[in-house]
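Something for you to look into today, if you have time. Just paste the record in under my message, thanks.
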Amino acid sequence: MKELVDLNADAGESFGRWRLGDDGALLPQVTSVNVACGWHAGDPATMRDSVELARDNGVALGAHPGFPDLAGFGRRAIAFSPREAADACLYQYGALRGFADAARTPVTHVKPHGALYGLTIREPDVARAVAEAVGSVDEELVVMLHAGSPAESAASSGARVAREAFADLDYGDDGRVVIEPEPQEKDPHKCADQAAAILRGQVTTISGGTVDIDADTICVHGDRPNAAAVARAVRARFAEEGVAVAPVRDVLAARRG
């Protein structure tokens, strides 16, 4: 079992008076947070609040760029070229960076959201383009991509890539996650079991098979109704197993040795 891992959460996904998730309860449980940048969710005030919440909790701050699809929460496919996907990520990173600079806290990583993340899984050229664009801004910036071929393809370009797995999503026999249109509550203990299995290098699929997996960071989705409970259960399981948690940059530094 791995001895060190990042636990990340997608958050900052409220919009105006419409509230989604309990970021105040969730962020103290994680080591990295990915903040929506206004295209699929979020707005300037929410972004500012999320940046300050991450700073005050000592959580590594990342941008969570998605498709321009507020109505569909960024989970509907759009035919972006590799360059368009890369530009979308840079644009939204820049928006978050403004609030981060004002709060005197760094942006350490970028993780595509929803259907844009799915595009990086299906199309290696998109994964590479996004990773190269992120690296062109700052060679220390990390891009989080799906563990397996998407992350490996992007890493081959020389970018700093974190291999991501999921505590609260099912896996298909092809090793890819099964995206839920509308996240429901999940048993926190089963999510903790899956997180522990990931750190042992395998995950059980929806058909009962297993696939190998090598992950640097494990995600909990902030829009799941009981996200904070899931994150607490995962952290508790890590403590039982003697697994330490750290922000994604520290995990990658340890991996490089």
